[in-house]
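ENCODED BACKBONE
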Amino acid sequence: MEEDKNIKLKRRLHMISNIFSYTIIAILMIIGSFLVFYVIDGKICKSKGKNPLFGLYTIISPSMTGTINVYDVAFVKRVNTNDLKKGDIITFYSENTFFGGTPITHRIINVTESSETGRLFTVKGDANPKEDDEKVKAAAESFADFAKKGYFSKNIATNKYPAGQNQEFAPGNAAIVICGSWLPNEAKDSVADDLEWGYFNYPSVPDGKDDNTANNIANQVLAINKNSKMSDEAFKLIEYITTGEFDKKMTEKALCIPTDKANADAWPTELSGVKEAFDATTTYYDWAAGVESNNDITPVLQENTQKLASGKLDAAGFIKAMKEAAGQ
């Protein structure tokens, strides 16, 4: 009797094992068939300039955080755009070259139609800001106005640091260069001997967040490795370089801002205008005032600001491009 029970138990376990095995095999076959279809369909669609029927994409941007997180995998299916509506989450390719053909997954927040443009979708990442800032428009319009009046260098669209300061400002072909207190030292061997250095802060603007007593102030850093076996000696060297006579010599040779307060009167003549603004500073911003804190946006901000300043984009075009880059 006990032997019969064991036989029945073994049969049941064997049957369960078979069912499990067949299920796994079936799932693998389905996945394999899907992958074969996915690859073949992708190649056929690519040859015809179409998007594949299905797609799998890894999310690399936090713009949809809360709904879709970074490193989630999005499974997408090609649909008729006439079936899309406000509130749908879609994956699409942007015409903006900044994205380099990377698919974007965002939510539709508005749908418009016209005989000229057809059906257009406004999209936004769920985690992206919702409100537009009128100050951005005002700033963009100011840049566009300067470009229209010819105040910017004709080379501004391709001008990369330090080309502008060395090839245009130093020879006297440009009257003003947007830069920092390091410029006189970097350009001292190229500028005319009789050049009178001047400096002024960005002017205050109506309803601005700050006035011209706000400054972007950065520092060069001398650091000591935590594993250094001569940390005391290294610290003494830093003290020697940044104080007293050596610090004063640095202001003379490198035309830099004195580090030692005892040398407060040793500012280089070339930086006299900088000193006035420096001493009046009441609000301090870190490097680039946070503009470069988003690695996804910084390159496209640089690209479109250059286009704006060179007259290739107007204010509306600049805002549109930046909103698209931000997923709004």
Observations:
- Residues 137 and 319 are 7 Å apart (CA to CA).
- The mean pLDDT is 82.
